[in-house]
Structure to design on (465 residues):
């Protein structure tokens, strides 16, 4: 008897190449100049123009997720382009067994009816959520259109992106993916953490700029030659700009993505901050008219807690496109719970958890990690958190210390946590409390960010107010 062979299922598609992305991006920019006087198309407008979904656009811009070839042709034809072979690469993934081979070792795999894992197995499988989500982790949840906007923007010559939010909202996790996207396009990448800069450099602009230029050169694998190239007599900011344009950029053919993380550290030194941010602004303006500067794509990342010490009317960050990280939606929490392999009913347990912490990414991740370990139930987690902070004690303590630095805000927040329907407060105070990550908005009324904050700060503030 002849055995009938079963054909394996094959998923085929194409991936946009860096060459294709550049051609498409240039065509989109030309269309924007002609039809919108240079104003950028939003993701939804782009979706409407091409007649494909925003979800498909997300796959397209990632340069790593396949789309149908007909879809790619549709994108190109929408901007009067013909799809060439150099614009895409064929991607094929075999059946499920082959798909699993391409997943990272710690990737999500659904284990039905599997026995409860030991604490050791859980901690080996899921890292404790106290830092950025690794590139190979299945626990990263996209928050459209943030990622798509970032990927698209860094393909623009001379772009500037500002990523801002309170701490623990996922800024570093997003930066890792922006850097990976840039590397897939063949860009050079430089990632500088401003907390690695010595304190002595923050009191001297010349030292600071030399330190930054040295780091940039090192990460580009170029000999710094600072002593030879640095002529302080022409001025620190000017010589820094000349060093980048005339020395570093001339040795690099491809675009350079420069990420400056934790740039809020400079807020502690207002004079240095004012000079440095003026320099960044000048680079942005140069890129609009000077081809040599268009190789640079700049991403600045900062937490908003320190930002409230600055004058609201003299913000140094009035350049580029701002990206503000939002909270998770309920469907995103459900998706994350499924990746943790929790057997949750859609819209049920996620609603209970969000009634406590809203969609705060770090607090959601921390809860799911503890729940998957089996050390506590969701009911127990919520009860302990309301009584004494529970697993969130350190998070709440950090917020408490930060709030104590602003006596005026303490009085306002004390009123907020007692008001059941929220309050209308001064816009400047609302701006500061929002930057601290302590409130949310309900129309024109202000509320504590979540039930957890209300319960904790009611107890704390009743002691001192």
């Amino acid at each position: 008897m002849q055995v009938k062979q079963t054909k394996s299922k094959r998923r085929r598609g194409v991936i946009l190449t860096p060459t294709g992305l550049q051609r498409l991006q240039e065509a989109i920019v030309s269309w924007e100049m002609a039809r919108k006087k240079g104003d950028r198309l939003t993701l939804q407008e782009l979706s409407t123009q091409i007649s494909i979904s925003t979800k498909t656009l997300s796959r397209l811009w990632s340069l790593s997720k396949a789309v149908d070839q007909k879809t790619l042709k549709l994108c190109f034809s929408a901007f009067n382009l013909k799809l060439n072979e150099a614009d895409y690469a064929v991607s094929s993934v075999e059946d499920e067994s082959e798909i699993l081979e391409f997943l990272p070792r710690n990737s999500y795999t659904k284990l039905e009816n599997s026995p409860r894992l030991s604490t050791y197995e859980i901690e080996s499988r899921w890292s404790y959520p106290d830092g950025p989500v690794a590139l190979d982790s299945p626990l990263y949840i996209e928050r459209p259109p943030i990622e798509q906007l970032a990927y698209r923007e860094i393909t623009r010559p001379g772009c500037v992106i500002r990523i801002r939010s309170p701490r623990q909202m996922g800024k570093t996790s997003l930066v890792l993916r922006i850097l990976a996207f840039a590397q897939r396009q063949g860009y050079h990448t430089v990632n500088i953490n401003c907390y690695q800069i010595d304190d002595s450099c923050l009191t001297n602009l010349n030292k600071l700029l030399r330190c930054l230029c040295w780091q940039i050169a090192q990460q580009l694998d170029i000999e710094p030659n600072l002593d030879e190239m640095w002529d302080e007599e022409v001025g620190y900011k000017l010589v820094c700009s000349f060093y980048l344009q005339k020395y570093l950029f001339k040795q690099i053919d491809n675009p350079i993505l420069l990420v400056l993380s934790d740039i809020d550290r400079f807020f502690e030194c207002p004079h240095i901050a004012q000079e440095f941010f003026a320099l960044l602004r000048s680079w942005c303006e140069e890129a609009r008219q000077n081809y040599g500067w268009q190789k640079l794509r700049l991403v600045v990342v900062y937490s908003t807690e320190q930002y409230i010490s600055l004058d609201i009317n003299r913000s140094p960050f009035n350049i580029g496109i701002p990206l503000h990280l939002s909270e998770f939606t309920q469907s995103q929490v459900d998706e994350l719970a499924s990746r943790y392999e929790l057997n949750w009913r859609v819209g049920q347990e996620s609603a209970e958890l969000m009634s406590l912490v809203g969609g705060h990414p770090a607090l959601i991740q921390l809860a799911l990690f503890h729940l998957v370990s089996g050390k506590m139930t969701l009911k127990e987690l919520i009860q302990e958190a309301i009584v004494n902070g529970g697993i969130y004690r350190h998070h709440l303590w950090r917020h408490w210390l930060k709030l104590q630095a602003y006596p005026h805000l303490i009085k306002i927040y004390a009123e907020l946590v007692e008001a059941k329907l929220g309050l209308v407060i001064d816009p400047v105070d609302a701006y500061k409390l929002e930057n601290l990550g302590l409130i949310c908005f309900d129309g024109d009324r202000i509320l504590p960010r979540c039930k957890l904050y209300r319960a904790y700060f009611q107890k704390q503030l009743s002691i001192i107010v």
Observations:
- Residues 1-11, 93-115 have pLDDT under 50 and may be disordered.
- The chain has 20 helices and nine strands.
- The radius of gyration is 25 Å.
- Strands lie at 11-16, 88-93, 160-165, 188-193, 256-261, 296-303, 321-324, 439-442, 445-448.
